[in-house]
Amino acid sequence: MGLAPDADPGERNTAELFALISSMARAIGINHVALDVGSVSEALEFWRSLFPDLQLRGRSSRMAFIDLGDQFVALFENDVEPRSEHRHFGLVVDDVDAVVAAARELGASVRGNNVSDPWGNRFDVVAYGDVQFTKAEPVLRAQKATGLEKSEAALAELREKGIDV
After folding, report:
1. What is the pLDDT of residues 72-122, one digit of tens each?
2. Separation CA 65–CA 44 (nearest Å)
3. C-alpha atoms less than 13 angstroms from C-alpha of 108 in its C-beta half-sphere
4. What architecture is domain 32-78+85-160?
């Protein structure tokens, strides 16, 4: 079921939208984020300074894969291009203040909860409890992160989507 090419999107009815959405592939989540770094060894030192219990999925001379339970961050040693100040990803953690403090101790560029590694890769450090992002209980157990609670605001956002956690 489709709309006429010249149809006003505001005129779409609920049944048409549901039929259109139901027939499309869905983005389910993010499996990994790939970052170019000048040195994999130095990048791992940076990440281990922020997260001392860091686990790797794998490592070679020019690549490393930081395990995040059911996701990972891939580090690739390459020539690094200049970065846009707005390009970043959100990294969900259990303790924002501890990560930001560790980044400051390393001399990293920190603006609020936005951190830059030495190669200009930026990430927002966000609290698990404050965002809709939710890990399955077995994954949290494997990460030794059970007991994390969602804020009322995050729970309300999830309920608005029909997700009851």
Report:
1. 999 999 998 877 777 899 999 999 999 999 999 999 999 999 999 999 999
2. 10
3. 28
4. Roll (3.10)
